[in-house]
Amino acid sequence: MSGPRPGRPVLEVGAHVRFRESPWQVVAVAGQLIHLAGESADESVLAGHLFADASFCIVGAQTPQAVTQWGLFETAPQDARRRALAWQRHIREVESGLPEGPGTGQVPRAAYDPGRFTLAQREQAKAAELTASGFGTISRTTVQRMRLAYRKQGLWGLVDHRTTRRPSPAGRADARVIAAIEEALRRQRGRSKGTVKGLMPLVAQILADRHGNGTVPLPSQATFYRLVHQLADPADHPHRPTPTGNSPAGRRAFTPTVALRPGEQVQVDTTRLDVMAVFDDATTGRPELTIAVDVATRAILAAVLRPAATQAVDAALLLAEMAVPHPARPTWPDALRLAHSPLPQLKRLLSLDERLHGAAARPVVVPETIVVDRGKIYLSAAFTAACETLGISVQPTPPHAPAAKGIVERTFGTINALLCQHLPGYTGSDVTRRGPDAETEARYSVAQLQDLLDEWLIHYHHRPHEGLRHPTLPKKALTPNQMWAALIAVTGHVPLPLTGTDYLELLPVRWQAITARGIRLDHRTYDHDCLTPYRGQPSPLASRGGKWEIHTNPHDARQIYLRLPDGHLTEIPWIHRDHIHAPFNNATWQHIKTTTTRRSGDRDTHEADLADALDQLMRRAHTHTATPGEQRLITRTAPLKTPPTTTGTPPAHTPQPEQTDGPRPLTDGRHNDGRHDPPDDTEQAHGEDEPGDDADAPVPYTGLGLYDPAQEALNW
Q1: How much of the chain is in helix, strand and coil states, percent to nearest 5?
Q2: Would you say 323 and 359 are in contact if contact means Cβ atoms under 8 Å apart?
Q3: Which residues of 569-591 are buried (b: 16+ CB within 10 A; e: fewer)?
Q4: How do residues 121-146 score in pLDDT, each as one tens digit?
Q5: Is the distance from CB of 638 to CB of 702 less than 8 angstroms?
Q6: What strands, in cross-sheet order, belong to the sheet with 369-372?
Q7: Residues forming beta bridges with residue 509, ordered by sequence position
Q8: Does domain 266-491 have CATH number 1.10.260.40?
Q9: Model pTM?
Q10: Do the bridges between strand 266-272 and strand 519-521 make them parallel or antiparallel, or are there none, so unpaired?
Q11: Any idea where the domains of the chain sit in the sequence?
């Protein structure tokens, strides 16, 4: 007969247990309730609470066999594994009488019958059998030790661990020398790195201080170099470069970014587009691309191209771009409009926000937190003040931690892979991947690239994203639009109405005094009749020393916006605005100031000379007679122009009527409240009376022709 099958201890009535460091006996078991009887009191405890106690155990129960650690077992040499498997059969026969374990239906051999012999007798019989069979000199104590090791560690306990020992990094070196080298490396940590040889005098001094002069000899130079190489961390090793944020040794542990609702976290970043664009002066260059990506939906909420360096005001206005519906172009087909998108809850959304009827098929998200790097434009007062105005929290990433905003970094790669590499003038991701004729292949202006990017974004939001999964459909990749619709159904949609005044509030703020002549700002005078009651008067805000709050547009210095005591922003024009018909920024103005010689006279005369010089520069740029430096200056700082529609072709949808009491439209054809003006082929930079307007009229824009949007929509 065979003995009982070994297994896990069982808690049953009559069993003695230890609980809260005291002995108890189980007197009853009722469902999950265990009734215990102690020496001085009785107690009823839930089974989960009883088993979770650190001191709980069943008195006299056999220790359960450990689960075999197959990963460790596979690391042992083959001979050691073969010997451990042989020991396993012998241990099983000693414990149950059967080499294959209980339950196999076999009959135990006479010497190992648990019904006739005790465990000690069976261990003695196994020791004699193994010794006689040439297994080695085995005693009963060895069999008992192997049996207990098997019970505690499973098959890993039967392995000869002399074959699995790891070699010591220091080998057989003196432990006192090892301790001295580690101490020397610790002292050098955080200091400028020297050489390995320079550590030897320090180690010798440490040995002399600890053990006496000449007591512990230093190893040879080769041995010393080997010990330092084995003991030093990569950051402490002399002659080894310090790990940076991009190196594997200096890289922080990566934690995936998780967001559960739209706008919970939006990552914003700026980079150079990997496509050469043709600027207005016929030169080529890579424009800057700024995008905002929602973590929860992977939606690209806003994408703006700039010919030159992006400023803080551009980042501030980007906030409004992502928080309001993006209007669809008049020439776009109906398939690219949100009203025709097959999304659930669409009718409900359209009833909540009427602006969605004419919007592009892209998600609209009001950000809660924006994650930015430590660039100057994102840490500027203009950007942080704009975020505070809209109730957005700004979260800068840690230094040298690009993985903190890895989603927006990966999105740049997606734009390059799905769009940029198919465009003429593609530069590749680095100079080793750049073709020899990338500059000559450039075909599109920055405005055309912006128009193409806006249209491509709609297709991107209808493309399945492998990082978007719904709990009920884990095997199906959702599109950003589908994920947005699914999360909006849970979190809800709160429309954020922004008027032209809201856009003006996002402009940078300065504090200036109102003098008898008006507001003086960088050799420019701004004046209007509405300033008459406030000339020479201090501002109601005493904290600013009597100065008044003004808002400036860095891309158009022809007017400023003054906050009057009624709380509204009022436009104050430059006194020479009628003389300058094109927007100019601070860089252009500084160039005029450095190239214009001040004549003898008052400042009004000098300001008039500056305005005349600026006008002459604009005229030279318009007639293509400016110097290359002047043309490059005007090109890099000019606002983008919306590509005109096809001449003679009526738009697919009539644009919204222009507001008569709203703010002035922005210089690129967009209104401050997000609307777009239909482009005017006859509108020029210097007015209708400029010579050569008809000859320089822009070529009608007929689309870039890379794909058919209507045909692409059928694949949605």
Answers
A1: 35, 15, 50
A2: no
A3: beebebbbeeebbbbbbeebbeb
A4: 999 999 999 999 888 889 999 999 99
A5: no
A6: 300-306, 288-294, 266-272, 369-372, 393-396
A7: 551
A8: no
A9: 0.51
A10: unpaired
A11: 70-163, 175-231, 266-491, 510-625
